[in-house]
Specification:
Layout lengths: L43 E5 L2 E21 L6 E17 L5 E16 L6 E14 L8 E12 L6 E11 L5 E8 H6 L7 H8 L1
Antiparallel strand pairs: 1-2, 2-3, 3-4, 4-5, 5-6, 6-7, 7-8
Length: 207
């Protein structure tokens, strides 16, 4: 995935939700099957009074994962490959009826770079992002309004100049339509508005 946390993604890290800092009250962990929708197996859940808080973490590594991005034309064309590791933290809040009301996904990417398998060239990048989804209808993921903040910066190792960036804040409605966009969002400019000019310098660095 050019995971739109690498698409949408790419923005400025926001202040963590105050709910994430509230100490959890002691209580028997609720049965996952009683929650709607049930959290993945790697989550741990505790009670907060009548509410339920679930948290999880995951580490993943990508090695030369082909993206749906092509640089160049003809015999010089190549697919960009993604490399790196990501540490993810997940938090979910459920109401007294066991319905999901909010979820947060935080990511930090390390040892990351895009590569051209034909030339062997690489383009290092940094990325941190946070996605917060508020459900307007508890338990219904299709009703979620998503806010993404963070940054995604690509630096040419030869010139040490930034050649591509997505930094800012985005809000998407439950139908996926952008409701608010702020910052320098090269991915959004390309995928939503068809302005691919920002990719020229990035492709040149990998050619």
């Amino acid at each position: 995935m050019l995971h739109i946390m690498k698409l949408a993604a790419a923005l400025v890290l926001a202040t963590l939700s105050t709910f994430a800092t509230v100490p959890a009250a002691m209580g028997a962990p609720p049965a996952p099957q009683g929650l709607n929708p049930a959290p993945p197996e790697f989550y741990d859940c505790t009670t907060l009074g009548a509410l339920t808080l679930c948290k999880g973490a995951r580490h993943e590594v990508k090695v030369s994962e082909e993206q749906d991005l092509v640089c160049g034309t003809g015999q010089d064309a190549f697919f960009i490959h993604d490399n790196g590791a990501v540490d993810q933290r997940f938090t979910r809040w459920y109401d007294a009826n066991g319905n999901l009301t909010k979820r947060v996904i935080e990511e930090r990417w390390t040892e990351t770079f895009w590569s051209n398998p034909l030339s062997g060239k690489t383009l290092p990048y940094t990325q941190t992002d946070k996605s917060t989804t508020e459900l307007t209808v508890p338990g219904d993921l299709d009703s979620g309004v998503e806010t993404i903040v963070g940054e995604n910066l690509y630096t040419d190792p030869a010139t040490h100049k930034k050649v591509f960036s997505s930094v800012g804040r985005m809000v998407f409605g439950s139908d996926g339509t952008p409701e608010f966009l702020a910052g320098q969002l090269n991915f959004i400019d390309a995928f939503l508005y068809g302005d691919w000019s920002a990719y020229d310098a990035m492709c040149a660095a990998l050619a």
